[in-house]
Amino acid sequence: MKIIKNNSLLLLALIVISASSCSSSSDKTTSRGIQPVQVQVETPALNHDKSIAVTGRVEPVHTAHISTRVMGYITAVKVKAGDRVTKGQLLATISNEDIMAKLAQADAMLSGANAAFQSAEKDFHRFTNLYNQQSASAKELDNVTLQYQAAKTNVRAAAQIKAEAQAMLAYTNIIAPFSGIVTQKLSDAGSIANPGMPILIIEQSGNIQVNAAIPETGISRIRLKSPAFVSVESINKKFAGEVVEISPSSIGSGGQFLVKISLPKEAQAVLNAGMYAHVRISTYSSSSTMSNKTVLVPLNAVSRIGQLDAMYTVGSQGTALLRYVRLGKVYGDKVEVLSGLNNSERFITKAAGKLYNGVPVKAGSL
User: 329 — alpha (psi -120 to 50), left (phi > 0) or beta?
Assistant: First the structure.
């Protein structure tokens, strides 16, 4: 009887120990499952800046591709890349022997025409006097008058032929159309010059601007003389300008509208053509532009999952919720959220542990 009692007590003790162990394990597992992740949260910022940010390029206002209208050998190129030239300066010469021969022929034709005209003019005056004295018939006067008019026409024709030859001769001397700097030398002496084939490229010095491409979603908000702010990172300079030209068509420019922005005098001395610039153009409000309010979030709050952009928000139950978003333009260290997040939702910027969809989170500072 005593042995049975002892066995009963031993069995009861084992049951109590087992229950206590199971309870401790269960409590430990439960505690581990509900432990929230410490996170730092923010709400989106609203960008009220009424402007369009694009990338542009510094270009000269005037650029000339210097070529010739006649075919021939280039006899001399008197400048090289980097040379500064003045308006009217001789840049290159083309062989002109054939044109000189044509000019000599034109001179001979003009001399012959002038001689014939002088003879016809004398006959005209003589027969006019004879007709007035009734010593010549009207038919004779008419014949002389026609010869006189034909001789005068031949003189004009010969003079035009000479003028054409002189103009062609002038095309063999290539001169600078404006003062500037030679940026490219494309041909050397001995090469054959063809009409329209560039020999030199000249850019007007001291007169540069920024050319930028504006998407069709923003072109309606830009006007002439709209203020523009240009930032050139390569030299760490910023300038204020204004829109001076807006292209009315995007055909041939990849669906982008070309806009030209003037630059102040202080920019002319430090900028070179070809430099890239960041441009921000002030725009006009429009009823179709959502009051120009843009939802911005920090770049470090966005993750790349496959081909999609995503970020974690905080749900009403205090859990992390994965949200896929569509991004727009970048503004410094922030990025525009076009869809997937409204301006009142809290999103996670930092986390002290691993985040996944549905994990409990606790907001605080990290």
Answer: beta
- The CATH number covering residue 191 comes to 2.40.50.100
Domains in the chain: how many in total? Answer: 4
Q: Which domain holds residue 86?
A: 65-95+172-202
Task: Look up residue 219 and give its DSSP letter.
Answer: G
In a domain, 186, yes or no: yes
Q: DSSP H helical segments within 91-137, as ranges?
A: 97-132
The bridge status of strand 257-262 relative to strand 303-305 is unpaired
The dihedral formed by the CA atoms of 135, 137, 143 and 144, expressed in degrees to the nearest 10: 20
Residue where the block lists tokens 């021969």: 101
In this structure, are 351 and 234 located in the same domain? no
Q: DSSP string covering 222-244, please?
A: --TT-EEEEEETTTTEEEEEEEE
SS3 of 289-341: the string is CHHHCEEEEEHHHCEEECCEEEEEEECCCCEEEEEEEEEEEEECCEEEEEECC
d(CA 275, CA 173): 33
Mean pLDDT by 10 residues, the chain (366 residues): 45 44 39 75 75 88 90 93 93 93 93 93 91 88 92 94 92 92 92 91 88 86 90 91 91 86 89 90 60 75 92 91 88 82 89 90 86
Residue with token string 């229950």: 19
Judge contact between 268 and 208, C-beta under 8 A: yes
Nearest to 182 by CA among 279, 32, 82: 82
Quickly tell me which residue has 């432990």 as its tokens.
Answer: 35
Look at residues 121, 122, 142 and name the one whose alpha carbon lies nearest to residue 131: 142
Integer Cα distance of 263 and 221 in angstroms: 21
Place of tokens 């069709």: 216
Distance separating alpha carbons of residues 43 and 359, to the nearest angstrom? 20
Task: Looking at the structure, tell me whether residues 269 and 332 fall in a common domain.
Answer: no
- Whether the model clears a pTM of 0.70, i.e. scores above it, the answer is no
CA distance 94 to 104: 18
* Beta bridge pairs of residue 158: none
Token code pair at residue 85: 């030239």
Residue 214 sits in the same domain as residue 280: yes
Same domain, yes or no, for 332 and 352? yes
Amino acid occupying residue 17: I
